[in-house]
Design brief:
With 342 residues, the chain is mainly alpha-helical. 74% of the residues lie in helices and 0% in strands. Helix 1 crosses helix 11 (218-242), helix 3 crosses helix 4 (71-114) and helix 12 runs parallel beside helix 13.
Amino acid sequence: MWTWSRKELKTNAKAAMKGRFWKDLLALIIVSLIGSAISYCVLLIFNACTGGRLMEYQQTLQNIQNGPQNAEVIQKLNEEVGPAYSLYSMINSIVSLFIVIPLSIGTYRFFQVNRGGKASFSELFVPLKKFFHIGLTMLWLGIKVFLWWLLLVIPGIIKSFEYSMVPYILAENPSIKTKRAFQISKAMTKGNKWHLFVLGLSFILWIIGTVCTCGILGIYFAPYYVATFVEAYYKMKAKALADGAFTIDELPNICMPEAPAAVAAAPVVPQAQQSNFVPAAATAAAAATAVAAANNTVEAAPVVEEAAPVVEAAPAAEEAPVVEEAPAEEAAPAAEETPAAE
């Protein structure tokens, strides 16, 4: 089992938001406003088609839910506007599935790219290029979790966390196959479901504070929450990649696209960056550098071997009988004995 520290994730999230907070917040506001505007436009269209009765019917339903029920009113409204309201609900659900949900996934992509500080707001709309595929994948996700909830509550909760990384995976690679997205999410969350649950639970005071301040605290809480879970995603992604759960081609690094070039120039990776996905690219770049260095060493080897005969020829010069002429020095003592003869 591989675990991580909640404090570490939140510290990394704050560091990722530093100098980019207002940009992150604006991205969330843009997606929220677009989603609300789309739903409201659909409501206006159907309301116009029913002569204004649809909004009246919707308001009446809300009043009935908040007060005593009137069976006669409900029956009359169902007969007059019921079919139109059912059609509106169905169309609104389809629009939310194929437009609003891909836009929401676009916020994850924006935060992923903005970890490198270079995100543009166009990243929010990248998942819309694969809106049909993403919509069907998220629909299948909802069906699977719902079926597990029907079975038992506990398995439903477990499966909810098991598939919780699917939106982040789709954000990083909108073209990935549905089956692979579920498989990779399962590999990432293996041994970490409880930690994800506790991580979400650790924000309970932020949620209470947001409610008590009428949403004012949420101005900081919303980007902070998303950034923290993006950090958790990259932490689990690095471990799953090391375990061989997927390849780098399936989930390419989008947070720091220039990282491989920088690493090639300086292969030493700081320890603080090893929690991100970048070290995987760094390892590949370092490996390529090592292979190139090894190839250069092999090519230089024959030069050393050719120089070897020259070194071996040196002893032949040393065989000259210079040292053997030492007997000339021995003759000196003989000359010194001459005075003795006198």
